[in-house]
Amino acid sequence: MRILFVLMMCTLFLFACKSKSSKKQEQQVVTDTTQITQPKPNYDTVLLALTNEVLTALKNKNYDSFALFIHPDEGVRFSPNAFVDTPVHKVFTAAAFKTEAGLKKQRKIIWGDYDASGDPINKTINEYFKEFVYDVDFLTPEKRKVNEFIQGSSSQNNLLTVYEGCEFTESNFSGFEKKYDGMDWRSLRLVFKMKDGKFFLVGV
Fold first, then answer.
1. Would you give the end-to-end CA distance of the chain in angstroms?
2. CA distance 117 to 159
3. What sign has the CA pseudo-torsion 171, 70, 57, 99?
4. Residues 60-96: tens digit of each pLDDT
5. Of all helices (H) and strands (E), which one includes residue 100?
């Protein structure tokens, strides 16, 4: 009789442990599912407002204001075309950019190569910005989107690979003169990365 009682108690103990373990596993599954399905925050409004601020500084050639948007750790990279050539394209820290832009006689800098000819782009900051950054009024574009490409190009677009985990905006004009049949389109992409709850510019 005593042996039968012990067997019954052991059975009840094992059942209770198994039930407790099953509940714990169910809770873990629910937690994991919640983490997987959690939506990514929508920063569209913030990024669009920030893009306007950056473009206003560029339009007015207010380089001190522009430097405030540069990422404090990674700096900002300037890419003259869709393919981001990380070893070649020029990267500035905020301090270095302010120094170069503030020179009475700006120095020539190699920014990369021309997409078609492969010749080096050897220009001052003012010259480079006029040709490759703010050559049209991107502050009032025909289209602007967040984290979505508007215009394709002949060069490979590797922005999402180079700037993985970052956010970007694209400001676009589809063309200006009918005789060029859209070949004179313009696009400017600004890439932002968050640090301490604030977005900074890492790519232009």
1. 84
2. 22
3. negative
4. 999 999 999 999 999 999 999 999 999 999 999 999 9
5. helix 94-101
What's the longest Cα–Cα distance across the chain? 103
Q: Is 136 helix (H, G, I), strand (E, B) or coil?
A: coil
What is residue 180's DSSP assignment?
G
Per DSSP, 54 falls in state H
E strand intervals along 69-185: 76-77, 91-92, 109-113, 120-123, 143-146, 167-173
Bridge partners, 100 (sequence order):
none
B/e letters for 10-37, b = 16+ CB within 10 Å, e = fewer, are eeeeeeeeeeeeeeeeeeeeeeeeeeee
Nearest-angstrom CA–CA distance, 176 and 19: 71
| pLDDT-flagged residues of the chain (< 50) | 1-34
Ranges of H-type helices in 38-92: 44-59, 63-67
Residues 6+ apart with CB under 8 A from 143: 150, 170, 171, 172, 174
Q: Which amino acid is it at 104?
A: K
Query: Tell me: the pLDDT tens digits for 107-116?
Result: 999 999 998 7
pTM equals 0.80
Task: Tell me how far CA of residue 173 lies from CA of 142, 176, 203, in angstroms.
Answer: 5, 8, 20
